[in-house]
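TODO from last week: model Ferrichrome-binding periplasmic protein.
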Amino acid sequence: MAHLLSTPCLPRRRLLSAMLLAPLLARQALAAPLPAAPRIVAVEWLPAELLFALGITPIAVADIVSYRQWVQQPVLPPEVIDVGERVTPNLELMAALQPDMILYSAGYGPRAAQLKAVAPAMGFAYTDAAGKPLDMARVSIMALARRLDREAVGRAHLAWFDRQLAQAAPTLASYRRQPLLVFSVMDERHALVVGRNHLFQQVLDQLGIDNLWQGETNFWGTAVVGIEKLIALAPGRAILLEQDDGALRRRISKTPLWQAIPFVRQQSWRPAPAIWYYGATLAALRFCRLLEQLEGEWS
């Protein structure tokens, strides 16, 4: 499972360089105009989401099996082709697909030069220099919209997104009574927690909800911690995002370590389907929708 979340383990210098270069990459003017229905390959899941936000389905995506486990939505149609691992996609297969464009995440996976040897390529960053992934998502959506001559679609999407969050905020009053932890279980002894500088943290901030996790996080706004760290948390609520059918949860639920966690003892936690931790506006909105869905259970 480690390779699926290998993004947070990249060298910080490369990540910072990519973050600084991403706006320039996104603004690159590519000479050839794209067709009305462009054939686009997304070698990472963030740019795949950006495409869906603009109403475009990629012809190919990397690591579809893991996408359906960790991202789940937007659902990939069966005709979308798998071009291999996100870090080392199959360049020969991509060339055979004759794409009009390749989208990638800056600082992750193959070098831009490798992709540009196949087709024009455009890179996007997950976050910005201020550690605001949602702000970066807005920039990325409009940069891609301009490149695809879909600026009106991009503006409409962002306006719709803002309306959805604004409409949700008054319905989530019970979440403001207790802090909330968002996490996934990695194995019997480790959890991935969301904190400062994460996409979901920005959503929580906009909704006026406190995060139960106040500890350190990495560049991406997450931290892998021992489950014993959860025992020390103050009382609150928790949402467990699951990348499987609950088998791992059922295994660890019988352990003394798990049963000692305050939110477990108080039965103030809920399992939920996975949402991609390192996405953009669609992932953020799915998270907001999940909060709405669970509101009735906690009110």
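Done. Confidence is low (pLDDT under 50) at residues 6-31.
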